[in-house]
Amino acid sequence: MRKVLVLEDEENIRSFVVINLKRAGYQTVEAGTGEEALEAVRDNPDIKVALLDIMLPGIDGFEVCRRLRAMDNRIGIIMLTARTQEMDKVTGLMTGADDYVTKPFSPAELTARVDALYRRTGGDEAAVSPDEISDPPFLLNTRNRTLEKNGQRVKLTQVEYSIVKLFMENPGKALSREEILDTVWGKDYFGELKIVDVNIRRLRIKIEDNAQKPTFVNTVWGYGYKWGS
Ligand code: CA
């Protein structure tokens, strides 16, 4: 699992970053202060990339960067800088950061930077297709083709597994029933679209808290389905 540290004291920014990294297949370790971040890196030697906010209560992001570098030369460091503080970028790089992202940043920009740095730090043997897709409470293991919900295995048919995988690879995206049919059953499959609905219904019984009021597999009326809201 690819692990990233997210140090940011503003909770809304931190959760925005965390959600997007998780969608991109990363596992995250969160910290709200520099002291917590240093402790987290000590406790999680498999963290390969750290995202560091600069303005923090206690020691600032530059100091965290300096101390991380002193601890571990290989960890990749990305500073989260404010647009107005051009000097932050220079200072960040001088203290040992590998890269910086200027706030406000888009999810795509952020994950592209993390992906690139992850590759550079050599921590990424499975960059192209991660073994696991984490989207709490779910964890999909693409090597074993298994799904866990809250740590408990959910027994799925191969078709159901393929549907979940498609969803988890496209969180929040409306997928048409045709698209689901083509991807899961193959383009050569001559069947009715109804088979998609039947499988979704069964899948909901297995993975939703309440299949009558689904929150994970949502219906997009007259079109298809999507994962999440
Ligand atoms: Ca801050």
Describe this protein's structure:
The protein is built from 8 helices and 12 strands. Helices cover 40% and strands 25% of the residues. A hairpin with a 2-residue loop joins strand 8 (146-149) and strand 9 (152-154). It is of the alpha/beta class and 229 residues long. It folds into 2 domains: 2-120, 3-Layer(aba) Sandwich (Rossmann fold); 132-227, Winged helix-like DNA-binding domain superfamily/Winged helix DNA-binding domain (Arc Repressor Mutant, subunit A), CATH 1.10.10. The strands form 3 sheets. Strands 2-1-3-4-5 form a 5-stranded parallel sheet, sandwiched between helices. The chain has a 4-stranded antiparallel sheet with strand order 6-7-8-9, covered by helices on one side. The longest helix has 14 residues, at 107-120. Residues 9-10, 53, 55-56 line the site of calcium ion.
Output the keywords.
229 residues; alpha/beta; Rossmann fold; Arc Repressor Mutant, subunit A; 2 domains; five-stranded parallel beta sheet; binds calcium ion
What is shown here, in short?
This protein is an alpha/beta fold.
Question: SSE layout and pairings?
Answer:
Blueprint: E1 2-7, H1 11-23, E2 26-31, H2 34-43, E3 47-53, H3 61-71, E4 76-82, H4 86-94, E5 99-103, H5 107-120, E6 132-135, E7 138-141, E8 146-149, E9 152-154, H6 158-169, E10 174-176, H7 177-185, H8 194-207, E11 217-220, E12 224-227
Parallel strand pairs: 1-2, 1-3, 3-4, 4-5
Antiparallel strand pairs: 6-7, 7-8, 8-9, 10-12, 11-12
